[in-house]
Design brief:
Layout lengths: L1 H17 L3 H12 L4 H7 L6 H41 L17 H15 L3 E2 L5 E3 H4 L19 E2 L2 E6 L5 H9 L4 E10 L10 E11 L4 H15 L7 E8 L2 E14 L2 E4 L4 E11 L1 H6 L8 E8 H9 L12 H7 L3 H4 L4
Parallel strand pairs: 1-5
Antiparallel strand pairs: 2-4, 3-4, 5-6, 6-11, 7-8, 8-9, 8-10, 10-11
Length: about 350
């Protein structure tokens, strides 16, 4: 009798151990403890035994019953945890999936170009000087030797402030040179980047645009210094070591002698390319500082002399980066900026 119960216990334990799902485990529970279950039948058979045998067998059956219940509870817990884990694994959200693209800002080509030009001249020893956008007639025209009858002073070319014809939006950044010389005396080397304003608007002109002026004053400065400075700048900016650079005689009220700077170019599928191709393209103006400008600034022109130059930032950017319409710089077109703009992370060394 005892051996039979031991074998039954071992058989049930093996079944519980080998089951792999809750349905099978529940079937084992019914098979053991149901109305016609294995343990239930043994309990029913106790009534046919003597009192002593009934006590002995009853105690044995109850011990087996308790053990089996513990095993069923433990197995039920294990199978429940396994089932939940499998369900979570199957239904989990894949957090490694890419999110929406992050819109990263771009540097406007104007900002990029100003930074590139500034860096080149800084390597030549030039400092950056700034001045106000709203100027007076004296600093914008008179002190730069621009006469009263000059066309630039006319209303159709210059934005004058209402009610005060002596105040205006500066037409170039040259006034920064005058203001700097009023505070500091030579020797000095400065560049003056900034916004300028003229009453004009088409594919190559806008009412507001950017210029960079330069000034170098010292003893014994001459045209050869100017030529070397401009040629080095053009070749480094356009990244062409043998770029042809031509100085063509011109006239500016604030320089004497004066010159227009042309660089070599050629046409490629109707698009202008910078390089050695037999054609020329004007990019900036320059010259030796006029003695009258030095006199206005109370600088002895017999002791100090120097050169000045000025360039349009938008023009440089258009030529270097293949931009056809000047107005595109200011239209706030995200698609255009994504195409022509610059990533701060990709160009951080460059600027």
């Amino acid at each position: 009798m005892s051996e039979e119960l031991d074998n039954l216990e071992k058989q049930i334990e093996e079944k519980i151990s080998n089951t792999s799902n809750l349905n099978d485990l529940n079937s084992i529970r019914v098979e053991v403890f149901g109305k016609k279950g294995l343990i239930t039948n043994h309990l029913k058979s106790l009534s046919t035994l003597s009192e002593e045998e009934r006590k002995e067998k009853g105690k044995k059956i109850n011990n087996i019953k308790d053990k089996i219940n513990v095993l069923l509870i433990q197995k039920n817990k294990i199978l429940n945890e396994t089932e939940i884990s499998q369900k979570l694994q199957k239904e989990k959200v894949d957090i490694t999936l890419s999110s929406r693209p992050f819109n990263q800002g771009k540097i406007n080509p104007i900002t990029q170009t100003i930074a590139e030009v500034t860096k080149i001249f800084q390597k030549m020893g030039f400092e950056t000087a700034l001045g106000p956008d709203i100027e007076d007639d004296y600093h914008n025209f008179t002190a730069l030797n621009i006469p009263e009858e000059h066309p630039a002073r006319q209303l159709h070319d210059t934005f004058y402030l209402k009610g005060d014809n002596k105040k205006l939006l500066r037409t170039h950044t040259s006034p920064v040179q005058i203001r700097t010389l009023e505070k500091r005396k030579p020797p000095l080397k400065i560049i003056a980047p900034g916004r300028t304003y003229r009453a004009d608007s088409d594919t190559t002109h806008t009412p507001m645009f950017h210029q960079i002026e330069g000034l170098f004053l010292d003893k014994d400065v001459n045209m050869s210094h100017l030529k070397g400075c401009i040629m080095d700048f053009c070749r480094e900016f356009f990244e062409i070591n043998d770029l042809p650079v031509r100085f063509r005689p011109s006239f500016f009220p604030f320089t004497e002698p004066s010159a227009e700077i042309d660089i070599g170019c050629f046409k490629d599928n109707k698009q202008i390319k910078i390089g050695n191709g037999g054609s020329w393209l004007e990019i900036m103006g320059c010259g030796m500082v006029h003695k009258e400008v030095l006199n206005y600034c109370k600088v002895d022109h017999k002791k100090f002399q120097g050169f000045a130059f000025g360039m349009g930032v938008e023009r440089l950017a258009m030529l270097k980066y293949g931009i056809s319409d000047l107005r595109s710089f200011f239209n706030s077109d995200i698609k255009w900026l994504n195409n022509f703009g610059f990533s701060i992370f990709e160009n951080i060394e460059k600027i």
